[in-house]
């Protein structure tokens, strides 16, 4: 069985302390590739370095939480090419962020969507409190945007709008909580060809596992939970989600076979 964790922050403690050990535990759980995302400008160097490890696919971008940082678009492009990044991210909109500058978030998102378009890369999107605004940005883009709406925990109705806009949907630890009815309904209803798995480690806990203990290996528990919700086997979930991840993110993931 081969699983892919399409969203993880390997450069953040405690994962950053022993990335090799984290990756070995992931491999033992059947996770053949881990997508490591940058977040702020400071994390770009760390993620580029982690990309040298077998099984790690890098993604660079400026998160909406740090939209105030001075993004140098030319530098981002140079780095994305240099580390053979599989996507641009983590980018997006978070209008629930206290005191946020919505205009600046939109500006930085649009700049990075243009970079992704120029380099023909997909994007990894974070969205909180701005689903209508994000949808409008995607629909107004000059070319269709390929990418992932990550850590999805909203309703199947909202999901459907982003599926129609061409995105893949990644589900993480939220679906393992019995109280997360909306997220679980969405994970059950997501079209198979758009379904992806992620942990967002170490940011989101699983039922019984606190966020700071979550590692890419936990993608197996998430896959098992989604298998139950969809009434299919763990192997079927692994097969469909890994084939979706490889088709979207490219052969770099395939090259990351253990
Ligand atoms: Zn993240």
Radius of gyration: 17 Å
Seen as an oligomer or otherwise, the chain set is single chain
List the ions, cofactors and other small molecules found in this model. Answer: zinc ion
Q: Quick one: how many beta strands?
A: 8
Which regions are unreliable across 5 or more consecutive residues at pLDDT < 50? none
**What do the pLDDT scores average to?**
95
Q: Indicate how many domains the architecture comprises.
A: 1
Account of the protein in words:
- With about 260 residues, this protein is an alpha/beta fold.
- It has a single domain (about 5-230, about 240-255), classed as Metal-dependent hydrolases (TIM Barrel, Alpha-Beta Barrel), CATH 3.20.20.140.
- The chain is about 40% helix and about 15% strand.
- It is built from 10 helices and 8 strands.
- Strands 1-2-3-4-5-6-7-8 form an 8-stranded parallel beta sheet.
- The model has no long low-confidence stretch (mean pLDDT about 95).
- It binds zinc ion.
- Zinc ion (ZN) binds next to loops.
Q: Can I get a quick summary?
A:
The chain is an alpha/beta fold and 258 residues long.
Features:
binds zinc ion; single chain; 258 residues; alpha/beta; 10 helices
Give the helices and strands, then pairings.
Elements: E1 3-8, H1 19-28, E2 31-37, H2 41-50, E3 56-60, H3 73-82, E4 87-94, H4 102-119, E5 123-128, H5 131-140, E6 147-149, H6 156-164, E7 168-171, H7 181-189, E8 195-197, H8 219-230, H9 234-249, H10 251-255
Parallel strand pairs: 1-2, 2-3, 3-4, 4-5, 5-6, 6-7, 7-8
Bound molecules: zinc ion.
